From TrEMBL:
Domain ABC transporter substrate-binding protein PnrA-like intervals: 57-323
Protein name per Swiss-Prot or TrEMBL: BMP family ABC transporter substrate-binding protein
A single cellular component GO annotation: plasma membrane
Keyword RNA-binding attached: no
Keyword Signal listed: yes
Name of a matching Pfam family: Bmp
Signal peptide: 1-20
Record's keyword terms, sorted: Signal
Length: 388
């Protein structure tokens, strides 16, 4: 069973629940007391009791609209996979378009107040708000997507999106005629910088002449800005575009211009069938099913999870016949190597754009290195925005 609530309706329901004593019995709308005035254990215990009496209540906070493509759409497909897997053992709900920051904290508190005992926050900017709420609700389990801070009742999960970016780069490097690639970046955090670099490394593996231009839109989902950024890159000579943003605007812009681009996070081929060189997709279903199973069976524990091609979380799909057969075969080989561990993307020597060696010859980057990338590799033009 699914419940889709807007932020406004959630707040209204919560306010109504504060006036209705019976709301606690039906598990929705109970307004929690301020942390300084309430026992940290009393409300979560009530939520846990409600969960024991019925299906596990699971809530998802989304940064963008579900729509029909992109980051949030991919997460919602994972939620649907949970419903399919567990049936009436679970009851899921979601709130879309929740901004990162203070409003995220308010929404997450409301989701807990409604009796949800497993809460997923699906964007980096929810990390601090979720930590605050988790501290006040020790009997609720929190899952934070793409973050790095944990608590006893909050763990992190992520997908190795850089693997999809690298495979897309291999194709881009073989299809460009100008040797200039363009990337529309969202927010300059290590995750996104890592993807830009991986895309470039993949392209350079088949075409050493590659240079990559980057335009930052400083938003995860902003189709007008994404369109403007994509057009700017085309104007600068890029003929293959990549993105780390959530809408299909970049692909659509390439389609109109007669150039090439990739889908991101989900299959976007229908938005630009002539421009589409493949979609680097995320399948959140396997992890969401695992997390739900952990909660249902009482085996959930904190920590961090980072899944990729090996676990079925990352793939590059929809590569068209216009891509040379040897390149398609190369991508398949890379995919197989990522799956069985025989291929490593970040293996030295790797140098930054100033020529400084950041990874020695034959050295393999560990997750700590990958999680802290704040530099551009050789071939990426411009500077990483200050403060990142």
């Amino acid at each position: 069973m699914t419940l889709n609530l807007s932020k406004r309706s959630i707040l209204k329901m919560t306010a109504w629940g504060a006036l209705a004593a019976s709301a606690a019995l039906v598990g929705c709308g109970k307004k929690e007391a301020a942390p300084e005035a309430a026992s940290a254990a009393s409300e979560p215990a009530s939520a846990a009791s409600a969960a024991a009496a019925g299906p596990l209540k699971i809530a998802f906070a989304y940064v963008g609209p579900v729509g029909d493509a992109g980051w949030t759409f991919a997460h919602d497909q994972g939620r649907l996979a949970v419903e399919k897997e567990f049936g009436d053992k679970v009851k899921t709900s979601f709130v879309e378009k929740v901004p990162e920051g203070p409003e995220a904290e308010r929404v997450i508190r409301d989701l807990v107040a409604q009796g949800n005992t497993l809460v997923f926050g699906t964007t980096f900017g929810y990390m601090e708000p979720m930590l605050k709420v988790a501290a006040d609700h020790p009997n609720v389990k929190f899952e934070h997507g793409t973050g790095y801070k944990t608590a006893a009742n909050m763990r992190t999960y992520d997908s190795r999106t850089y693997e999809g970016a690298y495979m897309a780069g291999v194709i881009a490097g073989s299809m460009t005629k100008t040797n200039t690639l363009g990337v529309v970046g969202s927010i300059p955090i290590p995750e996104v910088i890592r993807n830009i670099n991986s895309f470039t490394l993949g392209a350079q593996s088949v075409n050493p002449k590659i240079k990559t231009k980057v335009v930052w839109v400083n938003a995860w989902f902003d189709p007008p800005k994404e369109t403007e950024g994509a057009q700017s890159l085309l104007n600068q000579g890029a003929d293959v575009l990549f993105q780390n943003t959530d809408s299909s605007a970049v692909l659509q812009t390439a389609e109109k211009a007669g150039k090439y681009a990739f889908g991101w996070d989900s299959d976007m081929s229908k938005f630009g069938p002539k421009a589409h060189l493949g979609s680097a997709i995320i399948n959140w279903g396997p992890y969401y099913i695992k997390a739900t199973k952990d909660a249902l069976e009482g085996t959930w524990q904190t920590g961090g999870v980072w899944w990729g091609v090996k676990e079925g979380a990352i793939d590059l799909i929809g590569v068209p016949e216009i891509v040379p057969a040897d390149i398609r075969a190369k991508v398949d080989t890379i995919k197989g190597g990522l799956k069985d561990g025989s291929f490593v993307i970040w293996k030295g020597p790797v140098v930054d754009q100033d020529g400084k060696e950041v990874l020695a010859k034959d050295a393999v980057a560990d997750d700590k290195f990958l999680g802290g990338i704040k530099f551009y590799v050789k071939g990426v033009e411009g500077k990483v925005p200050a403060g990142n």
